[in-house]
Design goal:
Layout: E1 3-8, H1 16-23, E2 29-32, E3 41-45, E4 48-52, E5 65-68, E6 73-74, H2 76-88, E7 98-101, E8 105-106, H3 109-122, H4 134-142, H5 155-175, H6 183-197, E9 201-202, H7 204-213, E10 218-221, H8 246-252, E11 259-267, E12 270-272, H9 285-293, E13 306-308, E14 310-311, H10 312-322, E15 326-330, E16 341-349, E17 352-354, H11 362-366, E18 370-376, H12 394-407, E19 411-415, E20 423-424
Parallel strand pairs: 1-10, 1-11, 2-5, 2-10, 5-7, 6-8, 7-9, 11-15, 14-16, 15-19
Antiparallel strand pairs: 3-4, 12-13, 16-17, 16-18, 19-20
Helix pairs in contact: 3-4, 3-5, 5-6
Bound molecules: inosinic acid.
Inosinic acid is lined by residues 12-13, 38-40, 127-130, 132, 134-135, 223-224, 228, 237, 239-240, 273-274.
Length: 426
């Protein structure tokens, strides 16, 4: 009856899909538990490259049932488009296999417009959101004015409810000087989506509960990462959902006693997209080199990602707030040829020093602290062909060992290239 949780240990984009791929053979149900189509990962199927935003990445593994869980906010137009794209490639995305929790919340185009208006109003302090309407949809959920996916069971009535909410949002948009949207047009579009999605609706907690009670394996796929978590990230520069491991329990509706593994995923360096503090950010040629070698451009927005050195206090923080049992380290190959390497080992403020991430007072508190670096030897060998830990050059092995020592949990997977097979399981 195990549940395995996969969670980003940094600011998202850690390569969680790679870890899912590696586990999918032993999984029965894969579920997204947080976020919406702000997430994105690139997958290669049947020779086509496609970008998934809403469905669990395990959707490409034919024997895995997939669930978009209650904690997710769903843009039905995007979900239909994603299902169509996959169906066009011959992937079975029928309602027997791909399911949508009735308790998930709906994103409307007016949520997207409000997201954009909010960002514009914040000016220089903009969060740098993906403008997918994530924050406004979760705000409506918390205010108890949101629409849940289950309403799509009655498409006509759903259309009417959509029009009502669009009218309310339009008043907010008009006061922000943004053009309103046609309630009738949005209602018609959403009613059509509901016709399509209705057969996929399920009671998500029942599906999850039955899976666990039958001794089957549930894989909980986290989106974004620990430092983008609404409660435990670099607030206010965060997303609006629970990205940490605890979000899997609330977002899917099961209890902690089922959890057998919590796998954190981290890159061998650090990246973030959007605004907010990033103490080890590299604004020099090393940062650019990592960006090019790691193809660090957002999957959802195409924005260049900010790149920096690995930060061990961040990883220790992720171990703590998620209860990680192990870490998957991705993109080690990207660091080839960089000399010397630096890693953040502590933070300093005046005479005070801490090995932990001083995030207790949010993003503003973190600004007062300076990272303390340790220099490490780099390597020049390409790592793409390495399949065993011993195939790695000594400096790369030491880099991995240094991380393990700092975080106190084992590294159980190392990514050495973009292809599935470029994986070492030490
Ligand atoms: P939102 O989730 O669109 O509201 O954006 C809030 C913050 O989270 C912004 O800094 C985004 O760049 C960031 N963000 C949202 N989704 C992802 C993701 O999947 N990867 C990395 N950053 C993300």
């Amino acid at each position: 009856m195990p549940a395995i949780i996969i969670v980003g240990a940094q600011w998202g984009d850690e390569g969680k899909g790679r870890v899912v791929d590696n586990l999918a053979g032993e999984v029965h149900l894969a579920a997204r538990y947080n976020g919406g189509d702000n997430a994105g990962h690139t997958v290669v199927a049947e020779g086509h490259t496609l970008r998934l935003h809403l469905l669990p990445s395990a959707v490409l593994h034919p024997y895995v049932t997939c669930l978009v869980g209650a904690g997710v906010v769903v843009n039905p137009v995007r979900l239909v488009a994603e299902l169509d794209e996959l169906a066009g490639l011959g992937v079975d995305v029928g309602p027997e296999r791909v399911k949508l929790a009735a308790a998930a919340h709906i994103i409307l185009p007016t949520h997207q417009a409000l997201d954009g208006a909010g960002e514009t109003a914040r000016g220089a302090a903009a969060i740098g959101t993906t403008r997918r309407g994530i924050g406004p949809a979760y705000a409506d959920k918390a205010a108890r004015t949101g629409l849940r996916a289950g309403l799509m069971a009655d498409p006509e009535d759903f259309g009417e409810r959509v029009a009502e909410v669009v009218r309310a949002h339009n008043r907010l948009l008009e006061s922000a000087g943004v053009a309103p949207l046609s309630p009738a047009d949005v209602a018609a579009q959403y009613c059509a989506c509901a016709q399509r999605l209705r057969p996929h609706l399920v009671d998500g907690t029942a599906l999850v509960g039955e899976t666990l009670e039958a001794g089957r394996v549930l894989l909980c796929e986290g989106a974004q990462g620990t430092l983008l978590d609404l409660d435990h990230g670099t607030y206010p520069y965060v997303t609006s959902s629970s990205a940490v491991a605890g979000g899997a329990l609330t977002g899917l509706g099961f209890g902690p006693r089922h959890v057998s593994r919590v796998i954190g995923v981290a890159k061998a360096y650090t990246t973030r997209v959007g605004g907010g503090p990033f103490p080890s950010e590299l604004l020099d040629e090393h940062g650019e080199r990592i960006r090019q070698a790691g193809r660090e451009y957002g999957t959802t927005t195409g924005r260049p990602r900010r790149c920096g050195w690995l930060d061990l206090p961040i990883l220790r923080y992720a171990v703590r707030v998620n209860g990680l049992s192990e870490l998957a380290l991705t993109k080690l190959d990207v660091l080839t040829g960089i000399h010397p390497l630096q890693v953040v080992v502590a933070y300093r403020r005046g005479r005070e020093e801490t090995r932990h991430l001083p995030l207790g007072f949010g993003a503003a508190g973190l600004e007062e602290w300076r990272p303390v670096y340790e220099e490490m030897a780099g390597w020049d060998e390409s790592l793409g062909e390495a399949r065993r830990f011993t195939d790695l050059p000594a400096a790369a092995r030491e880099y991995v060992a240094r991380i393990e020592k700092a975080i106190g949990i084992p590294i159980t997977l190392i990514g050495v290239g973009p292809e599935r097979k470029q994986t070492i399981v030490p």
